[in-house]
Structures are given as C-alpha cells and as structure tokens.
Amino acid sequence: MSLGGTIAAERDPNVARGVTATLAASDLVAGTPQIAEVAEVTTVALRQMPSGDLTFEDLAELATLVSSLYDEGIDGVVVTQGTDTLEETAFALDLLVPTSGALVVSGAMRNPTTPGPDGPANLLGAVRVAATAAARDLGALVVLGDEIHAARFVTKAHATRPHAFASPNAGPLGWLVEDRVRLVTRVKPLVGFTPRPGPAPAVALYRCSLGDDARLIGEIGRLGYDGLVVEGFGGGHVPGRFVAALSELATRVPVLIASRTGAGEVLHDTYGFAGGEIDLAARGLLRVASLDGLKARVALTLALWSDRDHAAQLITSLSEAVAGEC
C-alpha cells in the first residue's frame, strides 16, 4: 500500500526543480522484480503525497483498510511512504491495527533518480519480513537499511543519510541478510485504540528550551487544544516559570511530560524542585516513561479520539507497557 514519499519520487516535467511522488504501489513492485520470488503481492495506491501532509484521518482510514485485509486472509501488509513522518505513521498503526498478520512500514532516503537509490532494497526487505510467519503478532514494524525495528522504539535519527533510522532505547528487533529474516527480539502487541466518528482531536507538542519565558504555554491554553505534550529537559523537567501555566492547563486537558533527549526515560522520584518530575506529577501532569514527544503526541491524539473520558488512564498504561517491553 503506497502513500507517496521519496520512494515513489521522480522528476516531474511540470515542476521546474526537484522530484515529486508520482509512482504508485504497482510501479514500485514492478521495479523490484525479485518480489515475485518472495510473495504474491496485491498493490493499492492509497495516497500520493509528501508524508508531512498526512493526517490522523488518513491513518485511521489506512488502519481500517489494513484490518479488513487481514479479515480477508492476507498474511502481511507493507506500507510505503515518505520518511519524514514514517515513525509517527508506524506508531499510529501500532496502536490502531490488531495485527493478526505482519505489518511493515518502509520508505527510502534516496529517490529513484539518484545514484544508489535504496527504495527497491527496502521494499524487497519489507516484503520479506511481511511474508515471514515470525513477524506476525509483533505490532507494526519498520524495515529500512536491512534492519527490523519495532514501531514503538524507532526514530528517524538523521536527516539525509541512507542509514537514518535507529531505536535508541532498544536497538533493532532483527535484520535481513541475503534472503533470510532474522528476528532476535520480540515485543508484545500494544493496547488497541478505536477512533470514534468525527475529526481527530488537536494535540499540541511543545519543546522546552533555555530562557523560554512561557508565553506560548498560555497561548496553547487559549487556542482550544484538546491536549498538550511537553518535551521537557533531561528526565522530564520544565522551567519553574512554566509551572503555573501548565498546572492551570492540566485542570482542563491532559498534559503529558516527555523528554526532549529522544532516549532514556522520564523520571519518577528524583527531583523535587518546582518544575521537576515530582512537582509536575503532584500538579496532575502525566509522565510518558520512554515515549518521545512525537510518539506521545500520537498516543494522546488516538487516546482522546477513542475514549476522551479515560485518555489519561490509557496513556499511563500504554507508556508503562512500552517502557517494560525489554
């Protein structure tokens, strides 16, 4: 199932410079003939856009379609898209799709017009993993650069290099070598979310930085967001001058605290200063353990969309489950 992105990009005569996504899923499979030796593949071109243009509504539609394919007896599904938001799409699918089959998300860092494009190898690897029985019941997986990552751990760790994806807290679940799929670590499926009819809730993501005077925190409250994720310093801390605004906001909507570092875990019980994790928890803010800000925002959006009244409990349960996987 193709959504566009670099893996599907080529030069467009109607665009003066650069490449755009014009290749559909059928084109990608036709350009990688080795796939026919691995699995019987049916193609679906669902979207054709840069991954930054995808919405939660797009992902909910995708998840529903993937689930229906499993019901029809499909053994595995591969989704290709741009890498800019690939980690968010994969994690959303991790939470939305009960994976009775294998579910793999992949893409490319080098478009087909450049020397050494990585799209065909990534697509072939993704199909190999999706066709492997051992890859079922692992939630959503990400396959690029011959590595197999769990969607809940993976992040895009470099802007341009071919080997751009990593799982800082856990490492890959396995890898591909020659024509073999090696899975050396397993994870348990996560709790599933089922969005209600209507548009997705609006959740803001805010990153703390040195010298910030907190004026934007107040604006977030006034703009009517349904929730907020704060990427705090280190183990989950914010400046003391943030505390009043965050405390007030937390009385109205869920406010989550993640770490801006991208690895490690938000602390429980070490620092007691104003804006430290002990103080923030006492004021009703929720820690998200090892989820980074991007994944925490995905999780909070889907939790609110599924069950607004119990979103806080869903997030707490989810974040602890992810932190305890390894």
Q: Could you characterize the architecture of this molecule?
A:
- With 326 residues, the chain is of the alpha/beta class.
- It folds into two domains: 6-183, L-asparaginase, N-terminal domain (Rossmann fold); 203-323, Rossmann fold (3-Layer(aba) Sandwich).
- Helix content is 29%, strand content 17%.
- The chain has nine helices and 14 strands.
- It has helices spanning 25-30, 56-71, 86-96, 119-130, 215-222, 243-250, 277-282, 293-306, 311-323, and strands spanning 9-11, 19-21, 76-80, 102-106, 140-144, 147-150, 155-156, 165-166, 174-177, 180-183, 203-207, 227-232, 255-259, 286-287.
- The chain has a six-stranded mixed β-sheet. Strands 11-12-13-14 form a four-stranded parallel β-sheet, with helices on both faces.
- Strand 13, helix 7 (277-282) and strand 14 form a beta-alpha-beta unit.
- Helix 2 (56-71) packs across helix 3 (86-96) and helix 8 packs across helix 9.
- The chain is globular and about 60 Å long.
- 48% of the residues are buried.
- The mean pLDDT is 94.
